[in-house]
Design a protein that fits this description.
Blueprint: E1 4-9, H1 16-32, E2 38-43, H2 46-56, E3 62-66, H3 83-88, E4 93-96, H4 99-104, H5 109-121, E5 125-130, H6 134-138, H7 142-154, H8 159-162, E6 166-169, H9 183-200, H10 203-207, E7 211-214, H11 219-226, E8 233-236, H12 243-250
Parallel strand pairs: 1-2, 1-8, 2-3, 3-4, 4-5, 5-6, 6-7, 7-8
Helix pairs in contact: 1-2, 1-12, 5-7, 7-9
The structure holds 2-phosphoglycolic acid.
């Protein structure tokens, strides 16, 4: 059975105090709502990781993650953070290849390949993001681009390693825009990603990998999206910053 996941990507939001309060309130509400079958992940700025990992330590289905990492173990890379540093804070996940990092920080697939390898080496689960910008969707070449993003940054992994990766399909035109992909568009791309994995690895391997949808996912559209056979949850930006919305999303399966 594939894991059902709701991962909140806080991006550059929340001060230390605000972040801790948000998590404490989410934990309380998740408990009240008796959410147990869905894994809830807080992908926070680095400053929150240690404290939030402590808060979620005893809760099996709630975890923390970072939003980026460097591929080197250590060294003269001012402003960067290594996987072992992230791991030492208690995090279990790291978002890699988010479109904002590709776009504003020029992350390349060569770098992403190295980041994926480094994360897995340190027992951090990569939440690997792929997705097409609007012009690619309009040119109808999105399938090719997503196939390329998956192949170039993930196919160096062997079968055992790829099963440790979570994939997030996030059409760039839907991120933070209020414009969600239709359920048909999401399902089509998720099925394509799974087929691509099955083709390179095998059916069982592809079936075991969780593929999340991201891009203006909110309580009003989540149920329909998550009901699709290849959509295993969501990577959530804006709606992860509010307790009720985020927990309502975890309650949308
Ligand atoms: P959004 O962001 O939910 O605010 O569209 C999603 C993401 O960037 O992961």
């Amino acid at each position: 059975m594939r894991k059902k996941i709701i991962a909140g990507n806080w991006k550059m939001h929340k001060t230390y105090k605000e972040g801790i309060a948000l998590v404490e309130d989410c934990i309380k509400l998740a408990e009240k709502e008796k959410i147990k079958e869905v894994e809830i992940i807080f992908c926070t700025p680095f400053i929150h990781l240690r404290k939030i990992s402590k808060l979620t330590d005893n809760i099996k289905h709630i975890n923390t993650g970072a939003q980026n990492c460097h591929w080197e173990e250590q060294g003269a890379f001012t402003g960067e953070i290594s996987c072992s540093m992230i791991k030492s804070c208690g995090a279990a996940y790291v978002i890699l290849g988010h479109s904002e990092r590709r776009q504003y920080f020029n992350e390349t697939h060569e770098q992403l390949t190295k980041k994926v390898t480094a994360a897995l080496k340190h027992d951090l689960t990569p939440i690997f993001c792929c997705g097409e910008p609007l012009e690619i969707r309009e040119a109808n070449t999105h399938i090719e681009l997503i196939g390329k993003q998956i192949r170039e940054s993930l196919f160096h992994l062997d079968k055992e390693m790829i099963t440790k990766v979570v994939i997030a399909y996030e059409p760039v035109w839907a991120i933070g825009t209020g414009k969600t992909a239709t359920t048909e568009q999401a399902q089509e791309m998720h099925a394509f990603i799974r087929k691509t994995l099955a083709h390179h690895y095998d059916f069982e391997t592809a079936e075991s990998i969780s593929i999340l949808y991201g891009g203006s996912c909110k309580p009003s559209n989540a149920k329909e999206l998550f009901s699709q056979p290849d959509v295993d949850g969501g990577l959530i930006g804006g709606a992860a910053l509010q307790v009720e919305d985020f927990i309502a999303l975890a309650n949308s399966f």
